[in-house]
Specification:
mainly alpha; binds fe (ii) ion
């Protein structure tokens, strides 16, 4: 069971929508895998992409002094903790695909609708010029290095 990306999930910011679409692609790639080696090869870049994406959203929220930043960051931290548990379950070979399919469905759809869409709604309501408050290098420029890995290890 894949988690299909759809244009109805777009929140209206090109950069965040592109990151979300990439997140779906990485999740679906992982869900196709059946052996531990391939699952491990997928989960590490998925974790990194997710961290980088969350960092991007959190930087946006800080810059606009978003009033609901705290619950949004708490939600991100919870999701990263779950991804860490996913990585551990793969390493321990206790990974149960059906459980994680359910998790990803709930996460990807619910978080976008309940947390990310209100953020973009706030930006639009307050006519905040997102393109002008984001430095160009904050995403995809390698501000996260290779030391950012799951398993809770940050060297
Ligand atoms: Fe978010």
């Amino acid at each position: 069971m894949q988690v299909p990306w759809s244009d109805v999930l777009k929140v209206g910011d090109t950069e965040i929508d592109t990151q979300h679409e990439e997140l779906f692609r990485r999740v679906n790639l992982l869900l196709k895998m059946t052996d531990t080696i391939c699952l491990t090869k997928c989960v590490i870049p998925l974790f990194r992409h997710t961290r980088e994406h969350f960092s991007h959203e959190e930087e946006v929220m800080r810059r606009i002094q978003y009033p609901d930043i705290l619950p949004h960051i708490i939600a991100h931290n919870h999701l990263l903790k779950r991804l860490n548990e996913l990585a551990v379950s793969i390493a321990n070979e206790t990974f149960v695909k059906n459980d994680w399919q359910t998790f990803f469905h709930a996460w990807l759809i619910n978080h976008i609708e309940s947390s990310d869409r209100p953020l973009l709604g706030y930006i639009n309501t307050h006519a905040l010029p997102l393109d002008h408050i984001m430095p160009a290098h904050t995403y995809g420029g390698g501000f996260l290095n290779d030391s950012t890995t799951p398993y809770g290890a940050r060297r």
